[in-house]
Design goal:
15 strands, 380 residues, alpha+beta
Length: 380
């Protein structure tokens, strides 16, 4: 695919504004209309980004994770009003007895914290994590407060999927067999295999260090497993199944996943979700204006979420009545606009934070090019 001059210039502008290595890919309908990259994957060796470079995308992973659960719900294997303990009895203790699947999806379970004894090594041990997540106490009653499950979301939703899957597959295997393989996605991983490790970009960061003071926020994002390059460049972390925060993808792989959502749950004749269910998942969650106990350091902003666990808006993706998106710490992003049948993913390896879309934002020129190309492209 030829790279439009405007996209090439926008990528160069992103590099000038501090980006290290970056990929962008997009779909309109079933056609990939955008596929470009620039920069350096590993400054130490000079390895350049190419179309197959893989990037840690942090919480963009959550969009894949909730979709796995929705696939099972669509098949009647669990219900959103079911208690988590109906499928995972060990979870129903210490104030979590009434927690529902919907509570878990919408970050209102009351237990957003990580186990107190967690380390990077232990975080990579699925069985260790799910045993201790099940034993966690609720910090407040389910449904009473919004508290973003920064890390723990992956084991909460992922273990629910594993237990409701008739085959009982490990979560990463479920995603490969039920999402990636049917859609022809090669480079979307929850646990990078040995043969792909050499393609992973090395993370760096220009993010300001936030001194956490809110105890709930600290518990959800403990200092033992910070969202930093030191943690997420580790080989064991890259190769572990961390469905809430540890996905590793190319923009091509992520964009194709979001294209399935943008096209009403189907892509190239492969349907993963019924259109009616997917449209229902664009509904705002209960009490969307409630200030979150974790996001932004706690007590700062609400979570603009749907009942299905996707975000409804983002500084890069924008907003819309049927927009499903998810960003990751450091500004990776993927989104699906069901009204336009538009899907886009941006992956990169220089973590930064920007709360506004100004000309100083590294993605500002790219965002304009997306709209130009989408407007010029024949409507699906």
């Amino acid at each position: 695919m030829a790279e439009p001059d405007g996209v090439a210039a926008a990528l160069q502008r992103a590099i000038e504004l501090g980006e290290q290595g970056i990929q962008i890919a997009g779909y309109l309908g079933a056609e990939r209309f955008l596929d470009a990259w620039a920069g350096t994957a590993d400054p130490a060796t000079g390895r350049a980004v190419d179309e197959r470079t893989l990037f840690p995308v942090f919480s963009v992973s959550k969009a894949v994770t909730v979709t796995a659960l929705h696939i099972l719900a669509d098949r009647g294997l669990l219900g959103y009003d079911d208690r988590v303990a109906d499928h995972w009895p060990e979870y129903g203790v210490r104030g979590k007895e009434s927690t529902t699947v919907r509570d878990a999806l919408t970050h209102r379970s009351g237990a957003p914290q990580m186990p107190a004894e967690v380390t990077a090594e232990r975080m990579c041990d699925w069985d260790w994590m799910v045993e201790r997540v099940a034993a966690l106490p609720a910090l407040f009653p389910p449904r009473t407060r919004s508290a973003y499950h920064s890390h723990v979301y992956g084991w909460l939703i992922g273990e629910l999927v594993r237990r409701c899957d008739p085959e009982g597959r490990p979560f990463g295997e479920f995603v490969r067999e039920e999402i990636c393989t049917p859609l022809g996605i090669e480079d979307l991983w929850l646990g990078v295999p040995d043969e792909a490790l050499q393609r992973v970009a090395v993370l760096s960061s220009s993010m300001d260090v936030i001194i956490e003071t809110d105890p709930v926020s600290i518990a959800a994002k403990p200092l033992a497993v910070p969202f930093t390059p030191a943690t997420f460049n580790r080989r064991d972390v890259l190769q572990a199944c961390l469905p809430g925060s540890g996905g590793v993808m190319s923009a091509r792989g992520a964009a194709r996943f979001f294209a399935m959502l943008a096209n009403g749950g189907e892509l190239d004749g492969v349907r993963l979700l019924s259109e009616d269910l997917l449209l229902s998942l664009t509904t705002p969650r209960e009490n969307p204006e409630q200030i979150d106990a974790v996001m932004g350091g706690g007590g700062v902003i609400p979570l603009d979420l749907t009942v299905g666990g996707y975000w409804r808006s983002d500084v890069v993706a924008g907003t819309g009545p049927h927009l499903l998106c998810h960003g990751g710490v450091g500004s990776s992003i993927g989104w699906a606009d069901l009204d336009r049948r538009l899907a886009v993913a941006i992956c990169h390896n220089r973590m930064f934070h920007a709360s506004e879309m100004t000309d100083a934002h590294p993605y500002a020129a790219l965002r304009r090019e997306i709209d130009v190309l989408a407007a010029a492209h024949p409507a699906p």
